[in-house]
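Archive maintenance. Older records in this collection stored only the sequence; we are now back-filling the structure field for every entry so that each record is complete. The fields below show one back-filled record exactly as it appears after the update. Entries are processed alphabetically, and ABC transporter permease is next in the queue.

ARCHIVE ENTRY
Title: ABC transporter permease
Organism field: Salmonella enterica
Length field: 67
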Amino acid sequence: MFKLALLDIYGGLKKIQFWNYMAWQEIIIRYRRSVLGPFWITASTAIYVVSISIVFSTLFSQDIKHY
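Back-filled structure field:
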């Protein structure tokens, strides 16, 4: 049974082009009418990281350069 699970995982990993295609299609469909388009994913992640850094550096009384 463990061998079947590993074979299933291996079979899924071999289809990397399929996974890339599916991910790209989801991004295109989700941000079809957006002005920023797929770049909004990067921008929103960057805003999240900066805001979390500011909040936690303040919470733990750390200089943001060191956090």
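Update note: The mean pLDDT is 88. The two ends are 46 Å apart (CA to CA).
Entry marked complete.
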